[in-house]
Amino acid sequence: LPCLRSYHKNVVDHYENPRNIGSFERADNDVGTGLVGAPACGDVMKLQIKVDENGYITDSCFKTFGCGSAIASSSVVTEWIKGRAIEDVVKIKNSEIAKHLSLPPVKLHCSMLAEDAIKAAVKDIQEKREKAAAASGSAA
Ligand code: FES
Ligand code: FES
């Protein structure tokens, strides 16, 4: 992969040793799933979070079908979001991810995918919890 030489060491590190690859059971009540695609290149990223009763992320994993920058971006955010509150992680900007990985401008959409995936995963768990709350409310 000679082209990897032009990537920053953080990209190569996360590309070669990605953290937290995997899947959680999508239907589980404590799991939020964010599945997003980049229209520019067709790459797809799935980011999942496990969220406790207080809204803190206890675990996170990803599966990304995409370029090295997208894989590195997903790997980085799974590390960043663990232990943090869901209201907090939706503030993570793709520019922070891009800066950490020193992504060139043509690769900014790869880090954008990771920002979108976090937001989608949080939205998913919030909707699940609202539904559950509504269901228990109507039963009471
Ligand atoms: Fe460089 Fe695929 S073209 S990693
Ligand atoms: Fe599309 Fe990286 S080239 S996500």
UniProtKB/TrEMBL annotation:
Organism expressing this protein natively: Dunaliella salina
Phylogenetic lineage: Eukaryota, Viridiplantae, Chlorophyta, core chlorophytes, Chlorophyceae
Family: Belongs to the NifU family.
Keywords: 2Fe-2S, Iron, Iron-sulfur, Metal-binding, Mitochondrion, Transit peptide
Major place of residence: mitochondrion
Subcellular location: Mitochondrion matrix
Role this protein plays: Scaffold protein for the de novo synthesis of iron-sulfur (Fe-S) clusters within mitochondria, which is required for maturation of both mitochondrial and cytoplasmic [2Fe-2S] and [4Fe-4S] proteins.
Domain NIF system FeS cluster assembly NifU N-terminal: 7-131
Protein name, entry field: Iron-sulfur cluster assembly protein
Requisite cofactors: [2Fe-2S] cluster
